[in-house]
Fold this protein.
Amino acid sequence: MLEHLRLRRRIALLAADVLDGREREDALAHVERCARCQGELAELRVLVDALEQDPLRAAEPDVPLAVMVARVEREVARALLTPERRPRWWLVALPAACALLAVAVLVPTLVERARRPPQAARAAIPPSEASPLVAEDALRRIERNLARENAARYLSEAGELLVAVAAKGPDCDRSDGRLDVGEAPERSRELLERRRLVLEPAGEAVAGARGVLDDVEMALRDVAELPSCVKRRDVDRLRESVERRQLLMRIRLMTRELEG
Amino acid sequence: MQPSRVEPADRELMARLAAGEREALAPLMERHYRRVYRVALSYLRQREDALDVVQETFVKAFQNAARWDGSAEAGPWLARIAVNLSIDRWRRNKRRLQTFAPMPEDDHAEVLAAAGDGADRSLQGREAQERVRAALAVLPERQRAIVVLRHYQELSLEEIASALGMSLGTVKSSLHRALHRMRAGLQAEARP
């Protein structure tokens, strides 16, 4: 019986064709003697065949390779511009060294200045005639791309926030069936402020996203007005509103469009 | 599947990536784009999500090329990144679906249609595939990854163990459980 239990465990592996040598022989010999195991092996083989005939195994990506390469290169370039924030030894050592240097340079200077009588103000230095380093249209392009990236990031963060609120946090008042939405109201207010300060001046660059941005703003305003301990039905109402407007899907599509 | 030999070109491309040479991305992607896409698509069953995972996989490959163990193959290494990213995305999607009503399904049927040219396209066959898909969907994320890597990518158990950071014994017992769970799911569905 113990032998049966031990070998029966191998039937799935036999069907998956991952046994070889002695293990395979033992398992096959057992199956020959065990009618129940034969039925099981036959069923598992049908399943494995179905998996291995799944058309997705041969699916072709419908985005051309060149387009995908361009997307990856863009992301890599972006990642290189904004490296991961990892604690590195020099991140600690460099500020410390700067501080020491500042103390070494500034302290004697300040001491010296304190000893001397005040001098006449220096003559104003005429502003240098700066020549533009970047062409105006290139600057406009950079600004436009930045605005669109900001909008994409804003939408993505707003989407995450809406999901987090609707995910219904822990109860904060069981007797009244209230839920804890944590810092979501405060975070909504921050996002709304960011929209006002960063996205509103972006104008034409994000004109196509205006509809989604407005709907997101409405949802964020609802969240911003919530207390941190909120009635369950208020969360349900918010979730229904997001669903009705298909807001998450629209956020996702618009984020992709803005990211180009 | 017999593991194919590491082509020197793969090694060379990985070395160039490790040195920060972005030009090495295109030839590496040309070789592995399909495979990575199929890993992600088999796991996620969503075209858009799978394409996002492909993109993230190659970005990560560029960022972590210096950590690639030259003695291993680049293909399974990329599959490992792809499957781990797919698991992350699966978790996020699951959380969203638990919270919100499902978003409109991706063009799964179109993917099937595009992929299935010349294959058995009978209604019965399609129904069987749908049942398999449903059975796969109920597996825990690691078991699902093991089934995908084994039966869609034909990786050996050792390669799967290495890809998922598991012991060989755990991979074996997980595959056993996964197949039995799927079989039970199919039987339950087949009952009137």
About this structure: Residues 136-166 of chain A form the longest helix (31 residues). Chain A touches chain B at residues 9-10, 12-13, 15-16, 18, 43-44, 47-48, 50-63, 65, 68-69, 71-73, 75-77, 79, 163, 166-168, 239, 242-243, 246, 248-249 (CB under 8 Å). The first strand of chain A starts at residue 171 and ends at 173. The beta strands of chain A are 171-173, 178-180, 229-231.
